[in-house]
Amino acid sequence: MPKKTVEDVAWQGKRALVRVDFNVPMDDARQITDDTRIRAALPTIAYLSDRGARVILMSHLGRPKGEPNPKYSLRPVADHLASLLPDKRVAFCPEAVGEEAQRAVAALSDGDILLLENVRFYPGEEKNDPQFARQLADLGDVFVNDAFGSAHRAHASTAGIAEYLPCVAGFLMEKEVGIMGRALANPERPFVAIIGGAKVSDKIKVLENLLPKVDALIIGGGMANTFLAVEGHDMAKSLVEEDAKDTARRLLDLARTSNRKILLPVDVVAAKAFAPDAEHTVRLVSELQPDEMALDIGPASVEAFRREILAAKTVIWNGPMGVFEMPAFAKGTFAIAQAMAEANATTIVGGGDSVAAVEQAGVADKMTHVSTGGGASLEFLEGRTLPGVAVIEDK
Ligand SMILES: Nc1ncnc2c1ncn2[C@@H]1O[C@H](COP(=O)(O)OP(=O)(O)OP(=O)(O)O)[C@@H](O)[C@H]1O
Ligand SMILES: O=C(O)[C@H](O)COP(=O)(O)O
C-alpha cells in the first residue's frame, strides 16, 4: 500500500515535526566520523524548508538511558547540519519538549530549521509514553517520519507521536522502504541474497523469510560454519552454533525440496587463532586441520559467489563474509563488495558491517542502495512490519 509523503502536504507556514536518525558515530573529541545519515536526510529537510515549512527536527543519539548526558548531546550535529546547509538558518534547542522548546519553535520563521536535543534524554521516549509523545506533538502540525534507521523502534518520537498528528514519510524513508520492499515483493530475477555475519541465530528469521523468495541464497561468514558442519564437515575450532544446527538442517532441506540454491563456501582462510597476526592459509573446507578455524571465505568460494552475483538482476547483501575487521580476513568481504559493484543488477546493502565494508572498499556509490538502517534493515529483511513505517498514513 503506498504511503503518504511530504509531497502530499501544502507546507507553507506549517510546522513540520520531522523524526530523523542522526545517530551518527563520533570520536572522543565529539567530532562526527561519518555523516552519511545526516546527508541522507538533507533532501527532506531542504524540500520542507524550500516550501516554507518551519522544520523542527527530532533525533536520538546513542543510548543515554532516559537522562541528559552531554556526551550524547546533538549540538555538534546541529553545527554540522548548519555547515551542510549554508543558505539556511539552522538553530539548536537544548531541550526536546517543554517551555524552552516551545519558545524556540515559536521563534521560527518560514523556512527555518531547528534541531531539538536528544529525545532519549527523556525517560518517556523509549517507553513510548503517550504524555511525552503528546508533548513532542505539541511542537508541530504534521509529523514527518524520515528515520528509517529507527523505524524498528516503537518509541514516542518514531511511533507514539502519530497518535496526535497526521503522519507522512520523508524522502529517505520512502526510498528505503520502496527499494527494499520492491526487491522482496517483486524482484527482477535471478534474485540472489548474500547473508553473512557471525551467527545463524541472529539471522534465522532473515534466512527463513528470504529463502522462499530468492533464486539463490549465498551464505558466508561465521554462520556458514554451522551449515557446513550440518553437511558433515569437521569445522575444527571454527565458530559453530550447536543450537542452530537444526535450523540450518531445516533450511538446507527446504532449499532442496523447493528448488532454491544455497551456496556455501568450498574453501576458507584458516587460522590457528582469532587474531590479526594469526598464521593463516587457504584450505578446502574438507581439509581444515584440527587446530584451525575458518575466518574468511577462500578464493574458490569468492569465484563461485561472484559468478552467481554477476548473473543476478537483484542482489541483497547483509553481513560480512569473514572477520573483515582484520585485514588478513577481509579479502572475501571486499571481493563480494566488488562483485556487487560490477553486477548489472539492482544491488542493495543493509546492515552496519556490510555497509562499512562497501564504504571501505570504495564502492558504496556503485550500489543501487546502501541502507542507512542496521537493525531496521535486518528487521525489514525478516519481513516484519516496522512500527515507524506502520504509522505513516496510506495514500
Ligand atoms: N568466520 C567468522 N568467524 C567469526 N566471526 C566472524 C566470521 N565471519 C564474520 N564474523 C564476524 O561477524 C561480525 C558481523 O556480524 P553481524 O551479524 O553483526 O553483521 P551485520 O549484520 O552486517 O552487522 P550489524 O549487526 O552491525 O548490522 C563481524 O564482527 C565479523 O568479524
Ligand atoms: O543505529 C541504529 O541502528 C539506530 O539509530 C537505532 O539505534 P538503537 O539501536 O540505539 O535503537
TrEMBL record:
Q: What coarse category fits the chief subcellular location reported for this protein?
A: cytoplasm
Q: Where in the cell is it found?
A: Cytoplasm
Q: Which reactions are catalysed by this chain?
A: (2R)-3-phosphoglycerate + ATP = (2R)-3-phospho-glyceroyl phosphate + ADP
Question: Keywords assigned by UniProt?
Answer: ATP-binding, Cytoplasm, Glycolysis, Kinase, Nucleotide-binding, Transferase
Listed InterPro entries: Phosphoglycerate_kinase (IPR001576), Phosphoglycerate_kinase_N (IPR015824), Phosphoglycerate_kinase_sf (IPR036043)
- From the UniProt record, list the coiled-coil ranges: none
Pfam families recorded for this chain?
Answer: PGK
The residues the record assigns to binding substrate are: D21, F22, N23, R37, H60, L61, G62, R63, R120, R153
Q: Which positions are annotated as binding ATP?
A: K203, E325, G351, G352, D353, S354
Superkingdom classification of source: Bacteria
Which Enzyme Commission numbers does its entry carry?
A: 2.7.2.3
- Pathway where it operates: Carbohydrate degradation; glycolysis; pyruvate from D-glyceraldehyde 3-phosphate: step 2/5
Q: Which GO terms describe its molecular function?
A: phosphoglycerate kinase activity
- PANTHER family xrefs: PHOSPHOGLYCERATE KINASE (PTHR11406), PHOSPHOGLYCERATE KINASE 1, CHLOROPLASTIC-RELATED (PTHR11406:SF23)
Family annotation (HAMAP family)? Phosphoglyc_kinase (MF_00145)
Give the family from UniProt. Answer: Belongs to the phosphoglycerate kinase family.
Q: How does it assemble?
A: Monomer.
Name it. Answer: Phosphoglycerate kinase
